[in-house]
Amino acid sequence: MSKNNKKNTKAKKQMNPRTKENLLLGFRSILSNDACYDLGHTRPWYAAVIVFILSTIIALIPTFTTYMTVSGGTMLTTNSYGYEVGLAHFQNDSDDDSYAISSYLSTLDSDGTLSMTREKWVEFTTAYNANLNASRPEESQLDDWHWYRHINSNTGNVDFQVFYCEFSGSELSSYASSIIAIAGASASTSSWTMPTYEAIAGLNPTDSPIYAVNTLILGEDGFRIFKYNSAGSLSAGGYGVNFKYPANEDLPFYEMSIPQAEDYATDMDYAEAYYRYVNGVTHVWSEYFDLAYRDYKNMTAWVQTGIMAAVFVGFPAFMGLLVFLMTRGKNNPFRIINAWHSQKIVYWACFTPAILQLILGFAFGVSSIMAYAYIFLVGMRIMWMSMRTLSPNRQ
Questions:
Q1: pTM exceeding 0.90
Q2: Which contacts of 196-199 are long-range, i.e. CB under 8 A and separated by 24 or more positions?
Q3: What pLDDT sits at residue 306?
């Protein structure tokens, strides 16, 4: 009795020969076009569909992962071009007792909008400009514009600017685009004429330039960032196309005094204090940029992945139709392949290109041509299959 049970157990553990054959054929299809043909022509449809879905998911992993790992905070840690220093000057000036508005800038209303009115902003910039223009009379023409700009004491040029508008959503994006569209190539403050606020607010930019320097544009429900390198070229235009004020997270304005050299006994002490100051600004604002960029990052990741998914699904379908048409010759021995068989053959052939897409996508990034390597690889494999495996002259 015991021997019989052992024999029965052993028999049950044996794999079905048909299943074993299908598995071996499936593994062979990774490299063999003949195996893809056999699987697509003679094996169940659901296996081909499962392999195709799996291949598409694998091919999309680099795109989705890349967009989901983008961090808004890298804007301040990778080639910042002094953006964090400009932010610190702005928050330091906005917290000045003479024209303090930092509490309005840092507080959000219950609906997630900035607790700021244009009247309050005008009040701030009027006082700030009056103080600024006391030593720079050539800038008196800017008083009506009501914007913030920090002037580098060493060069005499603007190195950071802030605009405020009561726009949100697409209107804010249009406003920001208009600001940048009329940006001049020079940061000099010597001679030029500012456009009126109404011209920008009406989205009707003039030819008058705005300083091509690091820019922060504050709106009602979000903000925009434009970062320029030392040559005045836009380095991060549209980087935060949809930076939105995070719910329950006020802007990180906080009391922070910019170090003054005369307050320290040695240059080394001052350098250390300044280093801590810059790192503090970078840390706080980087975390806030991460939160503010999160929603847009998620939306972008799904949209881009969806676009690539449509391409990665549509192209194999086209190649399946191509295989079907190429085998329609009157004397072609593969005329027995119908349209559905052709699709299944291509589905099985997609797995290897998907694995290669996964490798190349992470190796070279989705911003390169390698983001579309899957399409080229599938096309090359099917063309090679048509010339060899499905050739009408095949012996």
A1: no
A2: 196/144, 196/145, 197/144, 197/145, 197/146
A3: 95
